[in-house]
Records
---
Amino acid sequence: MNSWIILGATSGMARPFLRKLAEQGNALFLAGRNQEELETLAADCRLRGAPAVQVMRFDARDHSNYADLIATFTAQGDVLNTAVFSGSMPDQEVIDANPALIEGVMADSYTGPATFLQMLVPHMEARSAGTILGVGSVAGDRGRLGNYVYGAAKAAFATYLSGLRNRAGRKGVHVITVKPGPVDTAMTQGMELPFMTTPEAVADDLMKAIEKRRNVVYTARIWQVVMTVIRLIPEPIFKKMSI
Amino acid sequence: MTWTKTEYAGWGRALSAKGEVTRPERADMIAALAADGAAPAMGMRRSYGDAALNSEGRMIDMTRLDRLLSFDPKTGILEVEAGARIGDIAETFAPRGWLPAVMPGTGFATIGGCIGQDVHGKNHHHQGSFGQHVTEITLLQKGKELRVKPGSALFKATVGGLGQTGVILRAKIRMIPCKGDLVFVTERRACNWEEHLTLLDASEATYTVGWIDATATGPELGRGIVEEGESGAGLVKKRGKASKVPLDAPHFALAKPIVKAFNWAYFHRVPARGRTVVKALGDFFFPLDKIHDWNRLYGKRGFYQFQCVVPLGAAPALRQMLQEIAGSGLASPLAVLKRMGPGRGGYLSFPMEGYTLAIDFPNRPEARALIKRLEAMTSEAGGRLYFAKDGLATGAQIRAMYPDLPKWQREVKKADPDGALVTDLVRRLNLRTA
Ligand SMILES: Cc1cc2nc3c(=O)[nH]c(=O)nc-3n(C[C@H](O)[C@H](O)[C@H](O)COP(=O)(O)OP(=O)(O)OC[C@H]3O[C@@H](n4cnc5c(N)ncnc54)[C@H](O)[C@@H]3O)c2cc1C
């Protein structure tokens, strides 16, 4: 039996992905802060076919129980896998007014998950198997006017995942970096955003990426092209643009 | 909650609304929702007309509160959040031997929408309507959660109650055992109206439905295919991915010669002696769901669906309606004839024992005029129009068709004294005032 631990399992983007894992018969460890919501998701996953579902507290800003979490998770005798959906995106203006918020944004998208993965990865390497799937963002590909603090945190996480892939790949653990564009969830509600995709389409892309052992995937795919172009814009021009 | 100004339409796309919409995603958002004050709720907006529209206010989109909460294999009772889709539940549970007792013709309908319209399925003659299998409804009413059980007046006002008694948050539904996720379907040609009714009347199958060629005239009037289904188990190829209508079709896509040709082929595909085929569950129960956004086939102007039910004795009146439709050359390929049993769960439930006819028409002046005539004929025949489809009826017509309306109004007045839950349909038909 395959086991998956999902950090930030209550994220709107994660839900269809959890359901696919459940339908395929994976054991699930749903980790996050909102206990009641996690229990609801757990019930849903059980009824959809997950043979075992456990709910765990994971707070990106509080590392104190990570060792316990990992001990529980690794007590499984089978292939261990991890997916990271945690992250937060306050409006850039809110951050401008209160720079102290930057620390939390970094913790939610980068330092929390990276600390956890750093502690977990030796266990996965010891079994020479498993997949780590980390959700970054197209916002991490270039700092833009509208959300550069969020983008910086996602860029840090993407760089971390790239290094982790380099390290863990040698021991049979595959690392996938996912870079979603805007996804139609509560996080993006009310925003006018281009090439919006759905959590269902993201889940399809993630399952394919796992099966094909892809390294970096953009979802929707169009964002690979868009971000290639955006990265190519010379800085003297880019700094005057507001996209 | 975040409220977003959007324009949204009923499934027929002939009617639309502009207003603020929010979409709660987690159960803890319900408190925030309650704090924002009462507003009506919508599901997947598979109602064709204006039942799920509110152009003078806000609308709550319930589709992300869609979790399966608990299932008791001893009783077959499933508790779900209101945004869960009926097709999703069927696909999940059929391989384990359970199906929702009642399923409408689209798997995209949510539990909230199935309750709000008290929907019926291809087994109405045996199982009655959706609401008759609901054992508990949790409503958000006046900012508070309230459990409603069968037997109470509030329950009868909520089932088929068009969302006017509160937001349905969760419900418990009784499922029925099935053999598996396949359906053995026997298809028979009915060569004319009389034969069609005879086949429907004689059918003892678990699921029965007639597809009707509403373009056939003369001696072929009323011809069609009667499908009878029984659940079964086995292995067939899984349904492929749904295809999608990417753009609004040009207005001639469903022009008369095309529809006629399609109907001819659809009829002759079944051999004269009939046949039995094995279908995946979705292919039998939700055939149109295979083509996403098929409503765009009618182009930008959209379409209306007319659906009425008339008492058994009024079959000749229904035949006359069909004659009118066939003669008009306005019919679409998608028409359904069914015999209904008496089962209904609420004061405003559509079903009555008799025959029901459902048919789509492009949104054109001639078609609207035809629908108006058909509505008048329905009134005269002692029949009823369906709120899930209606977009053109008048309040006066509806009053005669729904004798329990005053009882419903009394409950709704208690549940929502300020009229915060009124929708475009309720406003158009003036349903809440005596
Ligand atoms: C292809 C197709 C085939 C169909 N076949 C059938 C059929 O065979 N039999 C049949 O009976 N119907 C049929 N229908 C109609 C459909 O089943 C109903 O319109 C159903 O209500 C759609 O569910 P929905 O989730 O889209 O609800 P919506 O259309 O979004 O809403 C329907 C009503 O319920 C209310 N409502 C929805 N959710 C809630 C909630 N959570 N709380 C309170 N009120 C709520 C809305 O306010 C509205 O009044 C068909 C429709 C289509 C498109």
---
Amino acid sequence: MIKTDLVIIGAGPAGMSAAVAARKKGIESILLLDRNPFLGGILEQCIHNGFGLHKFKEELTGPEYAYKYSKEVEELGIEYKLGTMVLDVTSDKIVTAVNEKDGVFTVQAKAVILAMGCRERSRGALNISGTRPAGIFTAGTAQKYVNIDGYLPGKKVVILGSGDIGLIMARRMTLEGAEVKAVCELMPYSGGLTRNIVQCLDDFDIPLLLSHTVTKIHGDKRVTGVTICEVDENRRPIVGKERYIECDTLLLSVGLIPENELSKKAGIKLDSITSGAVVNGNRETSVPGIFACGNVLHVHDLVDFVSDEAEIAGNAAADFIMDNCSDSAVQICLNTGFGVRYTVPQVIDQSEDTRVFFRVTDIFKKAKILVKDGDRTILTLKREHCAPGEMESVLLKKTDIEGICSNNVNILLEVEE
Amino acid sequence: MFDVVIIGAGVVGGMIARKLSGYNLSICLVEKESDVAMGATKANSAIIHAGFDAAVGSLKAKLNVRGSEMMENVARELGVKYRRNGSMVLAFNDDEKTVLDDLLERGVKNGVEGMRIIDSDELHRLEPNITDDVKYALLAPSGAIICPYELAIAAVGNAMDNGCELKTEYNVKNIINDGDCYLISDGENEIRSRYIVNCAGVYSDAIATLVGDTSFSVTPRRGEYMLVDKEFGTVVNHTLFRVPSKMGKGILVSPTVDGNLLLGPTSEDIEDKSDVSTTAPGLDTILKSVYETIKNPPSRSVITSFCGLRSTPDTGDFVINVPCERFVNAAGIESPGLSSSPAIAEYVAELLSGAGLVLEKKEDYNPIREPSHKFREMSLEEKNRFIAENPAYGRYICRCEEVSEGEIIAAIHTNPPARNLDAVKRRTRSGMGRCQGGFCSPSIVSILARELGIPFENVTKSGEGSIINFERTK
Ligand SMILES: Cc1cc2nc3c(=O)[nH]c(=O)nc-3n(C[C@H](O)[C@H](O)[C@H](O)COP(=O)(O)OP(=O)(O)OC[C@H]3O[C@@H](n4cnc5c(N)ncnc54)[C@H](O)[C@@H]3O)c2cc1C
Ligand SMILES: Cc1cc2nc3c(=O)[nH]c(=O)nc-3n(C[C@H](O)[C@H](O)[C@H](O)COP(=O)(O)OP(=O)(O)OC[C@H]3O[C@@H](n4cnc5c(N)ncnc54)[C@H](O)[C@@H]3O)c2cc1C
């Protein structure tokens, strides 16, 4: 068995950034594994602009953003294996993987960072009735066909779901000569970034049909059309509000699911809301020495935050390996209250400042973000506008949380109406 | 000129082809779709029934019990996964309990072994996830599960290895009896054969009509299913049936041999023989029943839904006969057709022999087919030796089901060859997992294009017309 200090699974922006951080902290023996034949993860197929505005103050394409990190990985001489599928991780940090050169091999690590990203929710999970012809793709798969393989998977397109990938693909397909007939969104608001709605739909006159879903797929060999229908406030189709749209393609952008099959194998505790691991401020999971970051932990909308999160995990893994961990200070579990869907981290350490990320449950105008310890308000922040599609955060200072030992810390919203 | 042409490459046609390939005969299996196992055979409950359902004395009863006895050995020879998990019929009240008594009696008469009725304590001990509303169960330990399309693909593959020819995308439209042989035509190409076996599933009445046999008709009866993520594959161990009604065996909950959980089928007579669409009410009906049967059903972890058409004959029994010279029907094979298939093949061979076909054993017949899942079951050392020789087995393409490029290439070049995305999927399971091919399908399209020597945009999902990509982008 190979022995390595740190194994990182997934070489997307999360994995690469974690690797770079750990190396800069002095970890020499690192092994970065990815099943793709390239570094960069999902960014390789995101050839549009809009990456890196926060971190590098410039608008980069996905591959350009990834290159900033892959260059560093090379320069720092971090060892990586591509075309390598990780098959198993144990709680003892034994990683099993396979590739064409080494066959099936195992690595004993001192620490492991999980950075496997996420997968797209498929048609099956939605139970859309109808036939099962060619022409139904998740938006990411269509993106791969267009941007990587160079083929057009559809000419007359309906998109279900207004997540960012769906919006980006609406524009991409239009630019490639396809006609995007509509984007249907089940919710009364879009789950995507506002800038994507403007730049990808409005600029191309593509209608966004809110509170609409696809109820039936038609076509024997290839999609010939879909039935769409307006939904009520319980998201159920309203009888009589069906409409047939002729099309040859249905793209699904209906959610991303963190890819945690390996985490389950390692016995890591998962959060049922994020579908990612439960972590502390170090992004350490319930299994000591196993860390998680990026989309495998929770779905991010901006890659910049992925890189930041991965740095935290990379640094913390390095500390763990070098045995630098401060004796476990008091840990506080964060609870969510009105208007807050989840937080990451879910557990924080009292001895340090922690930025807590979270998502809201609905669109709110003029809201107050409150952090409370029981009835006592620790912190208040005002927001003109919050939406589920845009991640929020609050910085909890050491001084704010000193002395609190209860599990009664709550993050919630208050709406002035 | 062939000795026998078999029309329809479902599990019945496949088993007959395999049986006949054991004799010195020239045989050809013709199929209208782009691949084998595209009819009822790819969308059913996958149960090898014990045999207590069918009416005493019927052909169904006889062939079910015999087929179910043969199946374990057939599966072993063909390298197909098979598991005798046992089945239960659940009764929610005393009325339903009397149905169990009847089924038990019928089962004993049909020759099914080991059946008994168990009480609430025992059934909940065996299956802790059954709801408390279930009071009794009929336990049939000889019930088993199998993968039906894997079985049909393997049967056809084995028949081909033994000399049988397969023609796909050949839709039989006309048959003329030319005295001592039949002229079969799809409108373009003619095939001559001395004998014909009709196993065309829902279209078997139409094929029979071509030779003047209008003695039966077949109604398509829709059955819809939902398939649940492997994470919940062990929620139940036995196959759990509801008490049967006139429309069928009710909505079952069953593990599959590949480790998923299967829910369904519904039962609804329809008119269109090609309509395998799922419906919103159908999917609701399934969930409703499943909520009655098991605690905390994993309804949120459904990964796909699908639909199959039962070939329900108006005769009430399988139509296996010789309606005119040198023509054998294996028609209207509804459930338990999968369970009965090896026995149907035996019976059809007898009928052919009775109709004058000389059955002379082939010396070099080999009933064994290498399992397609051979690689997955190797030890670590074996895998590594294998990968060292065939590096493609070290390149994993499908993450959810852990399928390597080597297995995909093998599926493309092994009998019966896979020529499109769905055909690869049915042979290797790539794309059948929780992401439903979102990640691997572009890679498999490239592999198909390369191995078949065709342009990327000519690779289809499931044969002609089911194009995946249009032209190259600018
Ligand atoms: C279509 C799309 C558009 C986007 N647009 C923008 C945008 O405009 N601006 C922006 O800032 N952000 C955008 N994002 C978000 C951002 O790109 C992602 O959040 C970021 O790429 C996630 O990084 P990651 O490293 O967590 O995951 P990924 O990039 O998905 O990397 C995970 C890696 O892990 C590997 N892996 C997984 N499992 C295994 C295993 N078992 N063995 C080996 N390797 C494994 C995968 O192959 C992959 O390479 C977009 C995302 C998508 C999908
Ligand atoms: C919902 C459902 C549940 C079931 N559950 C079970 C079960 O649990 N256990 C069990 O034992 N059985 C079960 N069955 C029954 C079993 O699936 C069938 O009996 C079996 O698959 C029938 O096989 P077949 O080969 O006769 O038909 P098919 O698999 O339908 O094959 C017929 C083939 O003929 C081809 N064909 C038709 N017309 C032409 C033509 N003109 N030219 C060329 N080819 C043609 C078709 O394309 C098709 O491939 C179930 C069936 C259904 C629908």
